[in-house]
Design a protein that fits this description.
CATH architecture of the largest domain in chain B: Orthogonal Bundle
Largest sheet of chain B: 2 strands, antiparallel
Strand order of the largest sheet of chain B: 1-2
Number of strands of chain B: 2
Structural class of chain A: mainly alpha
Number of helices of chain B: 12
Oligomer: heterodimer
Radius of gyration of chain A: 22 Å
Mean pLDDT of chain A: 87
Low-confidence stretches of chain B: none
Strand content of chain B: under 5%
CATH class of chain A: Mainly Alpha
Helix content of chain A: over 70%
């Protein structure tokens, strides 16, 4: 899949290349956060309410004298970590359910799709808030809550793929040769339905980062992990005096999510050349 | 017409099933939470007094088997009893009912605005495909997709209320102004502008993209060529033939996204201090008032179901031929 054709198709989408460049920069920032900004981002680094371009705080400091730039760098870790792990968890739930529904059809399909529909009707952000609040905020509960509210579209996608691939000749051949259901699902159908799933997953990382930032904006972030949403939420009440405390973390979120969306579209072009470029 | 009545009935049955599932989910959430369910219901551990917790235990029969407790719980919810908020010393239902109108006004206005403006912009982009207007709309949609709505809200209020002073930054009405009648309505409307635009912006972007893609697809179909061959004007073809067909997937997606819109009101109401259910959710989170939070979960789910029925009706209006499946 990662051959030169793939890269040529990906590189044809200029936005995707730009997105990838931004994304790499953010990953580097996150990986070397402790090198660029040694010290705890929660610690007071300078005087409170320092405007941007101050001597010891490039992007200013917050109401407790914490360095905004350091918070953004350390926050990048939390955003990327939660975005990736919660997408992985959502993939595990969604693809498993979708694969079972699409492969077995009939009553199994019916039951699973009812269940999926229920989760699509529930206002997902409200459910995420309820889950994190009741099970107390921590990285684990946040990741699980995001996964629990994000899997339904993946299940629908996997189901549609499995449904259409199940009747194809190579699957029928595998059934005739007596392979077990799990072998057919994992070795025959899944590898052939990966492209659209990868594209959706890359877009889901972006949504997961937005969800995490919204939760921590409401004060439902992990109390030990510096995050962009928390920074905006904490600075909200002083926005009249200190715009920079909310503006810069917000820009970090926009850049990251935009980059991921652009990369997702590039992946779509490269992996599904036949599909029209449209997204609901 | 019979078809529509049947459709409506089957939707109601489905809605009832979903509601029961959510009530059951609420029940298990309370029980799955770490710690004693009575303590969970009472709020943050240690904050509630012993007498109240004992009363809760008796009321919900927390010493009896779990299925019996579930029965008691469902029975209470059906009767409109959503529990008692220890923090606010009031029944949860009373608190919710008081906040509901503000949220309905906000979400309904935002929903209609997002749909109308999204379809209009998407049509404009499709008609002017390849020009600067098309690219501008595409770029704005891409940006709106990537921006957290609470941050858009903060930035808009930074610009329009704090810098320019054109619009109020928060609240539902001017406190102490004592407006009545039309003046009151106008006052609320002015306070509504920023929250509604913020909430609508994200969805508007999505609907614009979808309308554009859908119109470009429909435009090349045979019946449009027939309409051209008949000598119809460009405007008539776009509105009566292309748009009417292209709008259907947009309405479907709008229905699916209703849940997100309602959920987004938590963030918007928190930013703009809008006194609705969303703001209540934020307060309940701060106070660890789980009874209120679970009540909000139920009420917002009901709102989503109502929005879905609304989009079904809209679908039927746009294309009466179509029987919505299931």
């Amino acid at each position: 899949m990662m051959n030169s054709d793939f890269w040529r198709a990906f590189a044809r989408n200029k936005g995707a290349v730009l997105g990838l460049a931004i994304l790499i920069a953010i990953v580097v920032l996150a990986a070397f956060a402790s090198v660029f900004f040694p010290g705890d981002p929660w610690e007071m680094a300078t005087a409170p309410f320092q405007p941007p371009l101050s001597e010891d705080a490039l992007l200013g400091s917050d109401m407790l004298g914490r360095d905004i730039a350091s918070g953004i760098a350390h926050g990048a870790r939390v955003s990327l970590l939660i975005g990736l792990t919660s997408t992985a968890a959502a993939l595990a739930i969604g693809v498993t359910l979708g694969a079972l529904a699409g492969f077995h059809g009939g009553k199994v399909d019916d039951a699973i799709m009812r269940f999926t529909e229920l989760f699509q009707t529930i206002p997902n952000f409200v459910l995420a808030v309820v889950l994190v609040a009741i099970f107390t905020p921590s990285l684990t509960t946040i990741v699980l809550a995001i996964a629990i509210v994000s899997w339904p579209p993946l299940a629908r996608l996997a189901r549609a793929e499995f449904l259409s691939l199940r009747s194809r000749e190579f699957v029928q051949a595998a059934i005739t040769t007596g392979q077990s259901n799990s072998t057919i699902i994992l070795r025959q159908i899944l590898p052939n339905s990966l492209s659209p799933i990868i594209v959706s997953a890359s877009l889901m990382v972006a949504t997961a980062i937005l969800l995490e930032s919204s939760l921590s904006f409401l004060g439902l972030g992990d109390p030990n992990a510096m995050s962009w949403g928390y920074m905006i939420g904490a600075a909200r009440t002083v926005i009249r005096q200190a715009w920079w405390m909310s503006v810069f973390p917000g820009l970090a979120i926009v850049l990251t999510v935009l980059a991921l969306n652009l990369v997702g579209e590039g992946l779509n072009d490269a992996l599904n050349p036949k599909l029209a470029r449209s997204r609901g | 017409m019979l078809g529509f009545a049947q459709l409506f009935a089957s939707r109601l049955v489905k809605a009832a099933a979903i509601l029961i599932a959510i009530v059951v989910m609420n029940f298990f959430l309370v029980h799955a939470a770490p710690g004693d369910p009575a303590m969970v219901m009472a709020g943050e551990a240690g904050a509630a007094d012993e007498k109240f917790v004992t009363q809760l235990r008796e009321q919900f029969g927390l010493d009896r088997p779990i299925y019996e407790q579930l029965g008691t719980y469902i029975g209470k919810v059906v009767q409109g009893d959503l529990g008692f908020s220890y923090r606010q010393q009031r029944p949860v239902w009373d608190i919710l009912a008081e906040r509901l109108p503000a949220t309905l006004v906000l979400t309904l206005t935002a929903f209609i605005l997002a749909l109308a403006a999204g379809v209009a912009l998407g049509t404009l982009a499709a008609v002017t495909v390849g020009t600067w207007a098309d690219s501008a709309i595409t770029v704005i949609a891409l940006l709106a997709y990537a921006t957290p709505i609470y941050w858009i809200g903060l930035m808009l209020s930074l610009l329009f209320s704090i810098q320019l002073g054109w619009l109020p930054a928060f609240g539902y009405e001017t406190i102490g102004a004592g407006y009545t009648g039309l003046a009151h309505v106008a006052d609320v409307a002015v306070h509504l502008i920023l929250p509604v635009i913020t909430l609508a912006l994200f969805y508007m972007a999505g609907y614009a993209r979808l309308t554009r893609a859908s119109m470009l697809e429909v435009r090349s179909l045979d019946f449009v060529k027939t309409a051209k061959a008949k000598g119809l004007t460009q405007g008539r073809i776009v509105t009566r033939h292309v748009l009417r067909n292209a709008i259907l997937p947009v309405i479907t997606v709008a229905g699916i996204q209703a849940g997100q819109l309602v959920g987004g009101s938590i963030l918007i109401e928190t930013v703009f201090a809008w006194p609705g259910i969303g703001r209540l959710a934020f307060e309940a989170v701060l106070q660890r008032d789980y009874q209120v939070l679970l009540g909000i979960f139920l009420v917002t789910s009901i709102m989503v179901i109502l929005f879905n029925i609304l989009t079904d009706i809209l679908y039927g209006l746009v294309d009466p031929r179509i029987q919505v499946s299931q």
